[in-house]
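Dear colleague,

As promised, here are the two records you asked about, laid out in our usual form so they can be pasted straight into your sheet.

NAME FIELD: protein one
SEQUENCE, THEN STRUCTURE:
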Amino acid sequence: MRVVFDTSVLVAAVRSRQGASFALVNAIPSSAFQICLSVSLYAEWQDVLTRQENLPPDRTAEDAWRFLRYLASQAHLQDIHFLWRPFLRDSDDDMLLELAFAAGCRYIVTHNIRDFAGCECLGIQAVTPNQFLNLTRATS
């Protein structure tokens, strides 16, 4: 199944090896899911994950770039030919919804579920990393 990971999931995975975010990112590549990526989401990942405050003490920006290139190599790259903005409360999250819809995803994995209120009408559900990890375990 295809899925979109919000940047918040990657930040949580990088900051801590504990928890569902790390477990999901560490599972890539997975037989249970494939992350989807657009150019705009990749640009956001680059911007956020290479910031000094998001780098673990023993890692550099170059390490973050290698990590991002690996994730991109494992992702389904999706072109988006339509925009619905604004649709969500936070317009920065619209690109995730557009990606999820274009790629045929049922889930957006995020730590900010409230930001995606209304996406259910498009057949997409926002779930926490823990909820999605439980879903993948139940289908395995």
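NAME FIELD: protein two
SEQUENCE, THEN STRUCTURE:
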Amino acid sequence: MYQVRPKKHLGQHFLKDETIAKDIAFSLSGEYPNVLEIGPGMGVLTKYLFQNPALKEIKVVELDKESVQYLNENFPNLKDNIYSEDFLKIDLYKIFPPPYSIIGNFPYNISSQILFKVFENKDLIPELVGMFQKEVAERVCSKSGTKVYGILSVLLSAYFDLEYLFSVDETVFTPPPKVKSAVIRMKRNGVKKLDCDEKLFVLVVKTAFNQRRKMLRQSLKAIGKNLEDIDPEILTKRAEQLNVEQFIYITNSLK
């Protein structure tokens, strides 16, 4: 087990269970053998990535200076492959030539932002395996018609096949979080481009969910476009009731 100092400023909880770390590392399909790990901390997951024979080269991005020092001292095979930067600000195209996969026990307080960045770079990152707060994992993998279905559910499912792999108890972390966690896998589906204006699609989805309790007739007024070309029956629905294809239909109607 690794004895580590928590990165409180990053909302990070370090995984200490070796079995779960190995399960996460081997959840990558191996189709994309170059891998970037986000927030490796003291390397409990990194160790098993190097043991996965399907993987070719491992690089990590780690903002915490103490963790970077530890990785440099204990993982000589990471030499020159440690980026001491903020993942949300880093240029992903300088890490590997595309495509490559991403993995990590993600800091809870920026996990949604990480997913939005992956969405924006979906043609670069065809696969992600990650540990999230269980609530976030369930939301990402949820289907239309459920209460937890939201913006990320729609945007990610438009381009990725989403799979909830397994739940993780609080006791396997240092320090233990106050919530349960879960591991998910995202793999690019066959959609190369949506049959609509993607920027408008994203705006429609975000606008609809920003007032999710209202019918679309009300919530979509904020976009400032005429709604009369949209099927009146759809306008009586709420955002959580619509699937990706219906959001595409609305986007094209507004266009």
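A couple of things worth noting about protein two: The domain at 8-188 is CATH 3.40.50.150 (Rossmann fold). Residues 1-10 have pLDDT under 50 and may be disordered.

Best,
R.
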